[in-house]
Write a structure and sequence with these properties.
The complex is a heterodimer of chains A (226) and B (461). With 226 residues, chain A is mostly helical. Chain A has twelve helices and no strands. In chain B, α1 runs antiparallel to α9 and α14 packs across α15. Chain B folds into three domains: 116 residues, Fumarate Reductase Iron-sulfur Protein, Chain B, domain 2, CATH 1.10.1060; 151 residues, no CATH class; 122 residues, Rossmann fold, CATH 3.40.50. In chain B, the strands form two sheets. Chain B has a four-stranded parallel β-sheet with strand order 2-1-3-4. Chain B has a four-stranded parallel β-sheet with strand order 6-5-7-8, with helices on both faces. In chain B, β7, α21 and β8 form a beta-alpha-beta unit. By secondary structure, chain B is α/β, with parallel strands linked by helices. The chains are: A mainly alpha (226), B alpha/beta (461). Chains A and B meet through α2, α3, α5, α9 and α12 of A and α4, α6 and α15 of B. Chain B: Keywords: 4Fe-4S, Electron transport, Iron, Iron-sulfur, Metal-binding, Transport.
Chain lengths: 226, 461
Amino acid sequence: MIAFLTGPMLWVSLLVFFGGLTVRAVMYVRGLNWQLDRVAYKPHMSLGLRGAIHSIRCWLIPGGTYGWRQQPFMATGFFLFHIGAILLPLFLIGHQELLKMAFGFSLPTIPSSVADALTVLAIIGGFMLAIRRIALPEVRILTTAYDWFILGISVAPFVTGFIARLHLGNYDFWLTCHILTGEAVLLLAPFTKLSHIVLFFMSRGQLGMDYNIKRGGAKRETAFPW
Amino acid sequence: MPQGTFCNTTPIGSEEELKALLGDKGGAQYYEEMKELDVDSDALGALLEKTCQSRIHTWLEICAHCGMCADSCFLYRVNDRDPKQVPAYKIQSTLGELVKKKGKVTNEFMRHCVDVAWSQCTCCNRCGMYCPHGIDMGVMFSYLRGVLNSQGFVPWEMKIGSGMHRVYNAQMDVTTEDWIDTCEWMAEEYEEEWPGLEIPIDKEDADIMYTLNAREPKHYPEDLAEAAILFHLAGENWTVPSVGWEQTSLAMFAGDWAACKMQVESVYKAIERLRPKRVIGTECGHAHRATVIEGPYWAGREDGLPPAPYIHYVEWVAEALRTGKLKIDPEKKIKEPVTLQDSCNYVRNHGLAKATREIMSYIAEDFREMGPKREHNYCCGGGGGFNGIGKYRKERNKALQTKRDQILATGCKLVIAPCHNCWDAIRDLEEEYEIGIRWSFLKPLLIKMVIVPDHLKLPEE
């Protein structure tokens, strides 16, 4: 079972993930329309790209925007979860061994103590995001079963992976759960809200272009104050 | 009932139709008819298919339902944090459903969308700044208004407003004759006090072409005279066009895109006809947005720019003060504490926060900022057409509380509002809440403070 999941199934998952998200990104750009969106992308491309990069960068820095500063609880939950969600899949030693086995190369790895800490923090981050959904009326009204599913499936690889790592209960069972949920995330990403893995950059960048090209970013000394 | 007499999918085409619609007091019959108006689901579905593309589609899809936009919305805050006023909820439960159902919706649903689109969002675009994904609900509500309009679901006053543009090429019934008369009358009226004062009409190749808001010639023509006096004092070579002088677009608030195009093209034609070096628009936020920021796209101009450099009045004032074309008498500067209303339509939508502050540095001794300020300022409470819709007066009055509290917190009794819409909202909030404030455009304040050059002074008796 594990051999299949880390063999052909992993190949399929990665292919769907990278292929699917690339298609989403390309489709996004192709679907932009200067007249419908009312943004003159082409004639002001460099101004637009500057705005896009500025906007993306600000939102990727904790406390980098008014929005993050005004909502520290959300910001903390968000960054704890997302930092783990990006670093762990990429640089965990176990994942790199898999990569080496499959493709014959590997990326640098993070020390296991750091990885453990990141995992715990990511789970805490996910928990904080869940608490917000229940506790705050303004988030509760928006929350659907679909949102819970997305949150659940995103946190699951961390929880199952950590249980396996601690060798609590049946190791093989938890490892299998970890791989299954991890691959589920990869497979679902292009078709669900998880597509924000790439579409965040597209949408955020697009609004940054909008503000810099048309809404006066260029009339300021620096770009728009996110 | 497929189509009503007043409430229908046909835009206003003639003066008679417009007058008949105006005769339906408060839109009584209009709104009754709206309850029976059929929804053409096929046309609606086709329109969504064609116009709801990448950006809006993605926005609706990837909204993480995180609620971070809630606090950015002044309507949510002022309505006791009603979860139904969370921007993401407002758009998901209206446009989101429309798209999901591909236009197969009921009349009741459409009327619900009308209420939300015109009374729960002023398209101030503030939420877009606070969404991690860069989702701008203001942009989507603007789009939703157009979709609703295409099916005849639009507030009565908005249908009248865009009808005015279609019939008179102005938001009010000011004809070319009325306009020219007003220019001549104002020049004559003020000539004695300001020797040599002119309002030149259709002068070709001038440095400046001035455009304005139809309310000025219609209801307070002295505003036009004040603009003329300030250009006169600054020694500008300027003109107004006989046709294409109206810069506003109620059609934009109504979501009547065809009328938006007609309106803005009349201004662009004037620019092409008179070839001014640049164009200056009056103290109005939505007029600037319509003609300078959105207009080029309606008119199909690929560079997103009007045919000539086109600036807002505050940019001209800042420049005139900076270059010394207008000089302020230090004795006459505003001594009392004074605050400034940042209009969403040219601050958040055109980055003009700096120009207004530069002006304040010349004219005010005790300038106090509202909090939040600049790009983060709140809507006056009456933007996006909210001021003008009788049906939503109660909601609008509630919305004014945000600005009331911001002004009270500054401790100022004088508010400078270089935007007609903000000016109206602040006037109305004083009427409604009586907090003892005064409000003003820049022009009358400047005229009181500016040093008159010797050669333009009245000859001594």
